[in-house]
Design goal:
The complex is a heterodimer. Chain A is α+β, with helices and mostly antiparallel strands. Chain A has 5 domains: 129-230, no CATH class; 249-482, no CATH class; 492-574, no CATH class; 585-632; 678-779, SH3 type barrels, CATH 2.30.30.100. Chain A has 33 helices and 24 strands. A 5-stranded antiparallel sheet of chain A has the order 23-22-21-20-24. In chain A, a hairpin with a 2-residue loop joins strand 21 (737-748) and strand 22 (751-756). Chain B is an alpha/beta fold. In chain B, strand 21, helix 19 and strand 22 (457-460) form a beta-alpha-beta unit. In chain B, 48% of the residues are buried. Classes of the chains: A alpha+beta, B alpha/beta.
Chain lengths: 780, 550
């Protein structure tokens, strides 16, 4: 830090790699794409949009310190700054420096170029006198100064006290209204010419004394020096150096953990329940891509949940990749339906189901945290008064994941057991990111809090231990496991033909019971009822009566009631008088010899054929597959309509063909932390340094380092095989040099196809334009 | 993880493990706000309904207590949403109050203007309101008091009824406890009814509901109208009141098909009340005949729909409903609660049995198998004849005979639905048959003979379903019934539940044809009792016929 530098770019160049990495981690947009060199970086960092995004990331105090720097003469020393804001500024300065919003050492602090334009009224102060009056025509200005007996605009600041006194108390009151901002006011005829002699109203008196500057016909501005004088030299009235306390009630953390744990368990169970049902009876996809309000309501009724909770679960299932659109989604369907497309559980769902409850919850909670979908919007109306459907693209808000994370972070900061109210959390967030406010954020905060409660992230509005681990990126499942009810392996079976599982059942038993009995109520326990239908279902699924009775008596904590035994035996006795097989399709022919021939063909094995009668074969494969299979065998089958002799008994639960939105498997690996990967940042810094080196060392064409072509292709091939990342120098069609971090996928026909990490997209690169290749991961 | 006896389900049912050490304590804590729904052997099910929560509020419990009880006894964390819902629901009670107003008579007053506005705008309610007294008060037509309360319950804003009851015409009634005394639970039931003002008392058959009625009358000490199911029952009420209270023959009137006496205590039948002449209920004036201080509804689960409407107008009178099984096959339990009043007292049958107030009963389902030709005939029978066919199969007769033989010497009732079947059994068993056409006099003579032990087997049709008092019936054999009626089954079991002098348990046989509708209906009929903890044993008819030990 001791190195004194003259320009912003030089200062950036003097930052060490760690500092640059920190910068990119906080401002990832600076390396998308990676700038060619430091000079390019400095101009990008001072672009208005980049500055605005950086400022958005500041908390209120850091923002105030930054504003103070804008107000104070540049450069400013750290001491002067601390005096002006009357607080310890070291941490805020570190933050501002690491974001490259402030540069220079402590003796000469400067703001990044362009920052003055980014904040027009720092600390709610108007422009300095010189700027405020810049728009006055020169004759008018000289008339004004002459009237006041002054030579130059620069003399005004020295006369402020006198002029205020001279303007009188009414005018003073008008000034005071503008003193703490905003520093502009609306008046009619602001530009009317006034002199000390003609000034009547308080505003006119102020205009005549140059205490207000007319910006246009209807606006007057309070110059900065006047404002500061009115504030008694203080830049801020009440500076909040730390976030406001969250407040709220304090509860036993163990109770919070337990409650949240119970809710987490419920969430997982209800999700499974919903997706199981949708696997068999899926709702259609709307033309707009969402879920119809009627389907949502039906789901809410079936799950006995409020609509918004149902919307939340559906959205979370989608975000976690457990639910996806499937089938023809062409928007051509009628009645708002998008063709034949359906919402179906994915294969990832089957995978998810195999995990233990705690892992399943973590997958769901992570998806919720990361999702840019806002379940709370479902059922509301958009700007054009159209209904926003759950699962539709209208329910996406880019700021959602950031707000959720911020809310949980705020809760995590509070001492254990604290259950803050929504107001407190909102005030806290407003302090954390004062520039990102707005109605949406307020609602997002509210939604996040209520959703967290439903999902079991919080209990009694306090952050649960497992969620704390989740936010910190630790093993949340392990923490959650401790509060989840322990699975039981026994049930209480009663003479009224119900069985009560006094806790979550071990998976096997749960499955068997759900098969042999109907679930009557769920929650901490599960109540099953045996009915002739349910027992029949178990028998249909291949269980035998004695097997069932044996299973139940093994797991029953009490003697098996006799009526149940009779029920099972009665149903079993009647079971199977009619025999029904499972077949998805059939083959019919009037000529038994043809069927004989098919059965004899060994290739027909995979069609899983079964001869029912001389002229009928049943198959376990779907009709389309069967048709194809027979064609492959050289036959010319035709499909038969569904009328009449259909043998399909039960459709198996269906699954979406696509992998889903954010597949569960993927969700499992990616870190939840927002912002780019560490390796990408590291690579970017390396690329930048190299590019900068190349730009500064006078190489003939100033491009990134070159490698011999053959060696370069060899290295790219190696990287392709290893699946590792490399950074390359690349000249685009306009001859612009740039550095990219890529993941090579294949090389063919003189092109390299690769995933460009810096642009987050797959690109094709012409091999002859690649100027150099260097390893990325090796040094990371 | 605590080890509480209670599990809270997401559908607002509570599961109580009865063998748990603190089960009794927990039961006491949750009873005020949760209704016992099922009480089989191991796990009892309670339900938290809005009505139950409001009743708890009316009885002075607040949400804090309810939540505390749940949290402290629950084995697993209680879903937060459920707690919020409880607090919300309980918070709805009392925002509207029915009050007496010096000038407007009855008014609906509110502490929450928005609620009042909502209610005033509800289309179904508009006709019930009179003038708007002020911002927070609106007059109510006094005749609409009942329907308004019922309608307000339906839209979720229960009114706290502070308008009180009229005392009615005073008439001294005392209990005469000579040689008997009011049992603890009977006193509790009468008191919790009196405290609540109006309501329903649910007690098992044989637990002495009539005495609870008498105790309530003594509390009221006012003229009383008693509505009962039939004439025999009316007589029995009269006998019982003469025996248990200071009332004399002259003070009790009967208002039945034959007699039309209106006295300080009048017993009328539902049938007479619902008789219509030229489309009008001709006996409605009975309700206004006297300034009744108490209206008592016996077997309230049978209360006919027209009486609901008449009852709605009686809101200023105290009303007591008595029943053993508040299971209505027509699903109108809710109407009973809102028009008569909430459930004020309920005791699980098995608890009563444990305390010795009702006899332990052994329920046995005897399965008979149809012969092959019967099966064929059954399979091809018309849909509407099928139940009759299987329920009256001749195979049953020999089994019934064997059962009666087996219990020779014990007072035995054979109960059935179909007269032909009963007549045939009567001949076979050489026992008298009581059916619809049997004269009242003859019925009472036979009952007396049965009571005295002169005859030991009596065959009854469903006319005797209710309120007949057969003290020493020790065995009941059911051969057929009104399809799947759960409450009929409970009433029939009730015939044998009176504690026996011998201290022996009772037997209840249900003879059922295997693999037929009869069996399906039997399963449905038994559900209520199974939920009360009466586990049916199933045995094969061959075991009975072979005289095996069962």
């Amino acid at each position: 830090m001791g190195v004194s530098t003259d320009t912003y770019a030089e200062w950036l160049r003097a930052r060490d790699d760690t500092e640059l990495r920190a910068l990119f981690a906080c401002r990832p947009e600076l390396i998308t794409p990676v700038p060619a060199d430091i000079t390019a970086l400095s101009s990008r960092a001072s672009a208005p949009s980049a500055l605005s995004r950086a400022l958005d990331r500041l908390d209120r105090f850091a923002l105030n310190v930054f504003e103070a720097l804008l107000v104070l003469p540049s450069p400013t020393s750290r001491g002067d700054l601390a005096t002006a804001v009357d607080a310890d500024v070291s941490e805020a300065l570190d933050r501002l420096r690491s974001l490259a919003l402030v540069w220079g050492d402590d003796r000469e602090l400067r703001v990044a170029p362009g920052a003055r334009q980014a904040i027009p009224h720092p600390a709610s102060l108007g422009p300095p006198v010189r700027e405020a009056f810049a728009s006055y025509p020169s004759d008018r200005m000289s008339a004004l100064l002459a009237d006041l007996g002054l030579d130059s605009v620069d003399d005004i600041p020295g006369r402020i006290d006198f002029l205020i006194e001279d303007a009188g108390p009414e005018a003073r009151a008008a000034l005071d209204r503008l003193a703490w901002g905003p520093p502009i006011g609306k008046v009619e005829g602001a530009r009317r010419p006034v002199t000390l002699a003609t000034a009547n109203s308080p505003i006119e008196r102020l205009l005549a004394r140059a205490l207000l500057a007319a910006t246009d016909d209807r606006t007057v501005t309070l110059p900065r020096e006047v404002g500061l004088r009115l504030r008694g030299g203080r830049v801020f009235r009440d500076l909040e150096t730390a976030p406001p306390p969250l407040g709220g009630t304090v509860r036993d953390q163990a109770l919070i953990d337990r409650t949240a744990g119970g809710q987490a368990f419920t969430t997982v169970r209800v999700l499974e329940d919903l997706l199981e049902r949708w696997g068999v009876d899926p709702p259609g996809v709307l033309r707009s891509g969402g879920l119809g309000i009627r389907d949502l309501r039906a789901a809410a009724v079936r799950l006995d949940l409020p609509e918004w909770t149902a919307a939340l679960l559906v959205e979370v299932a989608y975000a976690a990749g457990l639910l996806a659109r499937s089938g023809d989604f062409d928007g051509s369907g009628t009645g708002g339906r998008g063709g034949d497309a359906l919402w179906l559980p994915t294969q990832a769902y089957d995978l998810w189901r195999l995990h233990d409850s705690e892992r399943r919850w973590v997958a769901v909670a992570e998806a919720w945290l990361r999702s840019d979908r806002v379940p709370g919007l479902a059922g509301e109306r958009d700007d054009r008064d159209r209904l926003i459907n759950a699962l539709s693209d209208d329910a996406i808000r880019a700021s959602a994941p950031q707000v959720r994370r911020a809310v949980l972070a705020a809760l995590a900061e509070a001492p254990p057991g604290t259950a803050p109210a929504a107001d407190g959390v909102y005030a806290h967030l407003t302090w954390r990111q004062p520039r990102r406010g707005g109605v949406l954020r307020e609602r997002l905060v509210e939604w996040t809090l209520r959703e967290a409660e439903v999902l079991g992230v919080t209990g009694f509005r306090g952050l649960a231990a497992h969620s704390r681990a989740l936010v910190a990126g630790e093993d949340a499942a392990k923490v959650l496991l401790k509060v989840l009810p322990e699975p039981v392996d026994h049930v209480l079976i009663q003479a009224d033909l119900t069985a009560v599982a006094p806790g979550p059942l071990v998976a096997d038993l749960g499955r068997e019971l759900a098969l042999a009995a109907d679930v009557e109520s769920t929650g901490g326990a599960t109540v099953y009822r045996f009915t002739p239908q349910s027992v029949r279902r178990a028998l249909d699924a291949g269980r035998g009566a004695s097997e069932l009775i044996d299973l139940l008596s093994r797991h029953s904590a009490t003697a098996l009631p006799q009526p149940l035994v009779y029920l099972i035996e009665d149903v079993a006795r009647r079971h199977g008088r009619l025999r029904v097989g499972i077949a998805s399709a059939y083959v019919r022919s009037d000529d038994p010899a043809v069927l004989e021939e098919i059965m004899a063909d060994r290739r027909s094995d995979q069609l899983r054929l079964h001869r029912l009668a001389p002229t009928v074969l049943a198959s376990r494969v779907p009709r389309a597959e069967l048709l194809d299979g027979l064609r492959v065998l050289g036959y010319a089958p035709v499909a038969e309509s569904a009328e009449g002799s259909v043998v399909i008994t039960r459709l198996d639960a269906r699954r979406a063909e696509s992998a889903g939105h954010g597949t569960y498997a993927q969700a499992h690996h990616a870190a939840i932390g927002s912002g780019p990967d560490v390796s990408v940042i590291t690579a970017a810094v390396r690329a930048l340094r190299a590019g900068d080196e190349a730009a500064r060392v006078s190489v003939p064409n100033g491009s990134p380092p070159r490698s011999p072509a053959a060696a370069m292709v060899q290295r790219l091939r190696e990287a392709t095989d290893r699946g590792s990342r490399v950074w390359i120098g690349y000249l685009d069609q306009q001859g612009q040099a740039s550095s990219r971090i890529i993941e090579p996928a294949r090389i063919e026909g003189g092109f390299l196809t690769a995933y460009d990490a810096t642009r987050a997209a797959v690109h094709r690169f012409a091999l002859h334009r690649i100027t150099g290749v260097a390893d990325v991961d090796g040094s990371a | 993880m605590t080890d509480g006896p209670l599990i809270v389900q997401s559908d607002k049912t509570l599961l109580l493990e009865v063998d748990h050490d603190s089960a009794a304590e927990c039961r006491k804590a949750i009873a005020p706000f949760a209704e016992l729904e099922r009480a089989p052997e191991h796990v009892h099910t309670y339900r938290i309904s809005p009505l139950a929560l409001w009743n708890a509020r009316a009885a002075g419990h607040d949400a804090e207590q309810v939540i505390d009880a749940l949290i402290s006894f629950s084995r697993y964390p209680v879903p937060h949403a459920l707690l919020v819902d409880i607090a919300d629901t309980m918070g709805r009670y009392g925002r509207l109050r029915l009050e007496k107003h010096p000038t407007y008579g009855l008014v609906l007053a509110s502490s929450d203007r928005a609620v009042l506005e909502e209610v005033l705008r509800a289309r179904k309610l508009q006709s019930m309101f009179g003038v708007r007294v002020d911002d927070d008060t609106v007059a109510v037509h006094p005749s609409e008091r009942g329907t308004l309360k019922q309608a307000l319950l339906k839209i979720g804003w229960p009114a706290e009824d502070l308008a009180g009851y009229v005392d009615g015409e005073a008439h001294v009634i005392d209990l005469v406890e000579d040689g008997w005394e009011l049992r603890g639970y009977q006193r509790d039931a009468a008191e919790s009814f009196w405290h609540g003002g109006s309501g329903v008392v649910v007690l098992p058959c044989g637990a002495g509901k009539t005495i609870v009625g008498a105790a309530a009358m003594a509390q009221a000490s006012a003229t009383t109208l008693i509505l009962v199911t039939n004439t025999v029952s009316a007589h029995q009420w009269k006998q019982e009141l003469l025996k248990r209270t200071s009332l004399t023959e002259e003070e009790i009137g009967e208002y039945t098909g034959t007699k039309k006496q209106i006295r300080p205590v009048t017993i009328a039948t539902y049938q007479v009340m619902t008789t219509r002449r030229k489309g009008v209920y001709s006996h409605l004036e009975l309700f206004d005949a006297r300034d009744w201080g108490l209206v008592l509804y016996d077997e309230v689960h049978l209360l006919p729909a027209p009486i609901f409407r008449m009852t709605a107008d009686l809101q200023t009178r105290r009303r007591l409903g008595l029943t053993a099984t508040l299971v209505r096959e027509d699903g109108r339990e809710g109407d009973v609660f809102s028009l008569i009043g909430p459930k004020r007292y309920d005791a699980p049958w098995k608890d009563m049995e444990a305390q010795g107030w009702i006899a332990p009963a052994d329920c046995v389902e005897v399965r008979v198998t149809l012969t092959d030709s019967e099966r064929l005939a059954y399979a091809t029978a018309e849909q509407e004849d099928r139940y009759r066919f299987c329920a009256t199969t001749p195979t049953k007769s020999s089994v019934v005979q064997a059962l009666v033989e087996r219990h020779r010497g014990e007072q035995t009732l054979v109960i059935g639905q179909y007269i032909d079947q009963l007549d045939e059994l009567g001949e076979r068993l050489e026992a008298p048959v009581i059916k619809g056409e049997t004269k009242i006099k003859e019925r009472e003579r036979l009952f007396d003979a049965f009571r005295s032990g002169e005859i030991s087997v009596l065959i009854v049709s469903k006319v005797a379903n209710f309120s007949i008092d057969l003290p020493e019936a020790a065995v009941a054999v059911q051969v057929s019934g009104t399809f799947g009626s759960r409450q009929e089954e409970a009433q029939r079991l009730g015939r044998v539940l009176r504690p026996k002098a011998s201290g022996k348990g009772a037997r209840f046989y249900s003879v059922v044809a295997r693999d037929t509708l009869d069996q399906d209906y039997a399963a449905h009929r038994q559900r209520f009792l199974a939920e009360q903890g009466y586990a049916y044993r199933i045995i094969d008819a061959d075991a009975i016929l072979a005289d095996e030990e069962i």
